[in-house]
């Protein structure tokens, strides 16, 4: 089990508990030089770069749209005036949602390190599946009309 204490100070890979990292066997002490065009060509022609870019774009689109449309949903559907700053609205959108995002990022990093030996993709795929389930359930709940302008309804709407 890795020790996460002192993670804010810089350490060598071995000292940080990451033995056996791949070391570059090329002697670059003389300063290998390649053109910036070659760097961009190498990066942008790699298929994984495009795969990750599309995955992050999809995740970002969902996150951004939910952040931006939440205020319209509360105003137009739940008939709340965001300028009055209802406590439940401020607490969920201003505190709970960002804190859950931060804590979830930290936990997913620790889970991938401990259980998947640093591989991020199994945890990411699990979270993408969970995201799809939550969005599907939110659509059903919102369509059924269960969400109302109560504290519980505001929390449920912001959670979804």
Would you give an account of this structure?
It is a single chain. The chain is mostly helical. The chain has a domain at 61-159. 63% of the residues lie in helices and 0% in strands. It contains five helices and no strands. The chain has helices spanning 36-44, 47-76, 87-115, 121-144, 151-159. α3 packs antiparallel against α4. It is elongated, with a radius of gyration of 22 Å. The model has no long low-confidence stretch (mean pLDDT 76).
List the main descriptive attributes of the protein structure presented here.
160 residues; mainly alpha; 5 helices; elongated
Mean pLDDT: 76
β-sheet strand percentage: under 5%
Low-confidence stretches: none
- Structural class per helix/strand content? mainly alpha
Secondary-structure map:
Blueprint: H1 36-44, H2 47-76, H3 87-115, H4 121-144, H5 151-159
What's the short version?
The chain has a domain at 61-159.
């Amino acid at each position: 089990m890795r020790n996460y204490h002192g993670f804010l100070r810089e350490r060598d890979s071995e000292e940080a508990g990451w033995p056996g990292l791949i070391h570059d066997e090329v002697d670059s002490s003389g300063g290998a030089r390649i053109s910036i065009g070659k760097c961009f060509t190498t990066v942008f022609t790699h298929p994984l770069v495009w795969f990750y870019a599309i995955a992050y774009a999809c995740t970002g689109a969902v996150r951004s749209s939910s952040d931006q449309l939440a205020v319209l949903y509360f105003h137009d559907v739940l008939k709340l005036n965001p300028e009055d700053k209802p406590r439940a609205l401020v607490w969920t959108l201003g505190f709970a949602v960002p804190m859950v995002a931060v804590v979830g990022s930290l936990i997913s990093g620790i889970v991938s390190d401990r259980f998947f030996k640093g591989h991020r993709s199994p945890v990411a795929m699990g979270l993408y599946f969970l995201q799809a389930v939550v969005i599907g359930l939110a659509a059903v709940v919102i369509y059924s009309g269960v969400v109302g302008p109560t504290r519980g309804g505001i929390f449920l709407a912001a959670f979804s």
